[in-house]
Amino acid sequence: MMGERTVAQEALFYSFSLERHVPADHLLRSIDRFVDLSGIREELKPFYSETGRPSIDPELMIRMLIIGYCMGIRSERRLCDEVHLNLACRWFCRLGLDGDVPDHSTFSKNRHGRFRDSDLLRRLFETTVARCMVEGLVGGEGFAVDASLIRADANRQTGGPGSDGLAPDADSRAVREYLAVLDDAAFGAATPVVPKYLAPADPAARWTSAHRGPAFYAYLPTTSSTSTTPSSWTWKRAPPCDRPR
């Protein structure tokens, strides 16, 4: 005989434990054992005001970013949705069932503000690699370099010749950041070569056809590991394009 689900009146109270519903072999449980963010608030304290409304917990944002990196979630909107709906993510972020998930715009403001000014993400990355060395996951005795092109968010049709420079009235955040480090040894002063094309939306990106297809603006992030320095992350210009396409 076919059964039928009986829909009873909703209970007034529920007993629910996130700890019990997250499997013991879940990826986030394995990661959580090694995550120690106790020093974040002290690191960021000089970058917060002593007055005003309390901010979003910086440890919560870092835990959410760890989820995004480990699960390949590049969109901050999607990351917020995932943490909101996924019980394991809520457990990892210490949100419980009724904790509020930050708005996606909060990440952008902090990445371009406090996190960048304090160099927090770099220190977290180096701390992670150092912990891997202690646990025997990374030997730290060799040297390795890897790189991949990342397409910049710049329209290939709006750029102009690099010899013409930027327009005098260009005053976006990307332009200000580009001009601020133009004379640094690791940036503009690292090479006398004038960029072939400049994109006003992102002048730090470089025009490249390294994929042997239509040229585009891109970055070339590289990672390296040595026996003396646990790890470093450096943004480099993409290889120049042989000819415009």
Features:
245 residues, alpha+beta, 2 domains, five-stranded antiparallel sheet, two-stranded antiparallel ribbon, elongated
Question: Describe it for me?
Answer:
The protein is an alpha+beta fold and 245 residues long. It has two domains: 18-133, no CATH class; 140-237, no CATH class. It is built from ten helices and seven strands. The chain has helices spanning 18-21, 27-32, 40-44, 58-71, 76-85, 87-92, 104-111, 114-118, 120-134, 173-180; strands spanning 144-147, 150-151, 160-161, 197-198, 206-208, 216-225, 232-237. The strands form two sheets. Strands 1, 2, 5, 6 and 7 form a five-stranded antiparallel beta sheet that branches. A two-stranded antiparallel sheet has the order 3-4. Strand 6 (216-225) and strand 7 form a beta hairpin. Helix 4 crosses helix 5 (76-85).
Chart the SSEs and their pairings.
Blueprint: H1 18-21, H2 27-32, H3 40-44, H4 58-71, H5 76-85, H6 87-92, H7 104-111, H8 114-118, H9 120-134, E1 144-147, E2 150-151, E3 160-161, H10 173-180, E4 197-198, E5 206-208, E6 216-225, E7 232-237
Antiparallel strand pairs: 1-6, 2-6, 3-4, 5-6, 6-7
Helix pairs in contact: 4-5
